[in-house]
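debug: dumping io for the single-chain case to check the tokenizer round-trip. Nothing else runs in this session.
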Amino acid sequence: MDILKDNLSVVCIGIMLIAMAYLAYTKGEEHKANMTPEERLRQENCLPHAVRSRPSCWKEVDWKAFCAHVQCKE
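debug: decoded output
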């Protein structure tokens, strides 16, 4: 019984960490389920930093900076 008392805090912390990881994972899956196909494709294709240089991966801020330097079509 002393072993259980000595390791109870370690077991509790382990259970809490597993629960937090599970909740974080399910929250991410819930977010993916609510994404439009366009958002999902953009996220999958634009994750690496080097790939973000493609215009299809640009955000609104990137387009504004680009359009400030060249004439953009509406």
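debug: round-trip ok. The CA atoms of residues 32 and 39 lie 9 Å apart.
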